[in-house]
Amino acid sequence: MRRPVILIIDSDESERVSLDAVLRDLYETVLVNEAHEALEAIKTGSVDLVLIDMDHQVVNGIEALELIKKADSDIGVVMLSSTGSAEQAVSALKKGAYDYITKPFNGGDLVSAIKRFTDTLNLRSEVRYLKEELSTRTNGEMLSVSPRMRRVFEVIGMVSSTPTNVLITGESGTGKELVARAIHSFGERKGKPFVAFNCGAVPSELMESELFGHERGAFTGAHARKIGKFEYADGGTVFLDEVSTLPMHLQIKLLRVLQEKSFERVGANVPIKVDIRVIAASNVDLEKEVRKGAFRDDLYYRLKVVPIELPPLRERQEDIALLARHFLDKHSKKCGKRVIGISEGAIKALIGYKWPGNVRELENLMERLVVLSRDGVEIGIDDLPSGIFEAVPDETMEERDFKEALRMFERRYIIGVLTRTNWNRGEAARIMKIHRNTLFMKMKELKIREPRG
Q1: Surface-to-core class of residue 166, CB atoms within 10 Å of its CB (0-12 exposed, 13-18 middle, 19+ buried)
Q2: Nearest Cα to Cα of residue 224 among 265, 181, 275
Q3: In 3D, which of 260, 259, 255, 267 has the Cα closest to residue 228?
Q4: Which of 195, 406, 414, 427 could bond 421 through an S-S bridge, CB–CB 3.0 to 4.6 Å?
């Protein structure tokens, strides 16, 4: 396995040698005297991360950082400094540094910072592979490194080559239709129709005609024969979303389709034979619906030959950064904008949010952030809507440095009070026992804006 390459920039030879001694057993190290030598090393070799000692630089450390990120924006940069200046640290992080470490530090701190970045590199490599592999199969939307989703992918692969009925369960927005399309596209029916039908979106009086079709004159307004979804999908797949909303009389007709592969159009007596696969989905517990008598047990067991349960996004947190960056890239291209990425702070906030709308909610947020952003900027923590922070658990504070944690606490606290007072600044200032002008200054400093609408 290739070892990550660490480039050390330090004009002090003893410091270079010391850093090399700490890292060389774990990484491939390259030692250079100053930034311009570093640029040559980057051009001629594969460098994963750069260490810049800001105390011993011919070129200013921040300028060196800018030169390196301009040469290769994917390279990680860790800044080392003895000053401990908060202003300098913030400036470095804004310019794209991965981390800022204050001297003196022990070797373990430095190795830990580098390991976090190399773990991210490994994840990005895996993401690229999965994205390329899955984009040909699932339109690039089914991306995951979660063990639970990997199991889902395995089941998709196994069931796609069979004619078996599948029942997909999961909360709204978890990607049930994507799974159904993947099953269809992997199997022998991939060149045939995939017909998706949302049972909950069609009035019950129209549902029978939509699914099974009707003959001319079958009812008032039936001026011509209509081909239903099942007939249109012959040879392919019918995906029935929100199947729990099917009326009881249509549950009986669906059961017959599953058992006999035949049905009659409304107003006709001649059976129509079809070769279809049925994939159903539900965001409610169908077993409970069966116990309540709202769903037929025989239909339930016919549909649930192979069950696939999709976890909510809050239970696959390792996928949030991956999906956020994917959707950011997707909508940047769609909107013709150049958004350069999303900050680590913003990613941490997204990971802490509960995502009641799951993947769909995350994609909608990323699209909104792209639409409202300017060209050439990075999405930062201040760009996120206030609702994201209200749900961030306190334990995520432990992962932040003091200043970042304090800033995040202040922002969440102020937004919480403003929300409770319906954004009445005077009332909020009274509750917080601060002057109204102080509140205005804090809102400006923390970039707190009242939600529109």
Answers
A1: buried
A2: 265
A3: 267
A4: 427
> For 378-388, what is each residue's pLDDT tens digit?
898 878 887 77
Give the distance from CA 318 to its chain's centroid. 9
Please give the DSSP secondary-structure letter assigned to residue 246: S
Domains 144-309 and 315-445 share a fold: no
Q: Check if CATH label 3.40.50.2300 holds for domain 5-124.
A: yes
DSSP code of residue 310: P
Tell me the domain boundaries of the chain. Answer: 5-124, 144-309, 315-445
Q: Which residue has the tokens 């630089």?
A: 57
Decide: 266 and 215 in contact? Cβ < 8 Å: yes
Q: Which tens digits make up the pLDDT trace of 147-202?
A: 899 899 999 999 998 999 999 999 999 999 999 999 998 888 988 999 999 998 88
Structure tokens at 207: 């549902």
Choose among 341, 345, 446, 318: nearest CA to 399. 345
User: Domain 144-309 falls in which CATH fold?
Assistant: Rossmann fold (3.40.50)
CB 196 within 8 A of CB 149: no
Reading the block at residue 432, the tokens are 């917080």
What's the topology of domain 315-445? Helicase, Ruva Protein; domain 3 (1.10.8)
Q: How far apart are CA 89 and CA 114, in angstroms?
A: 17
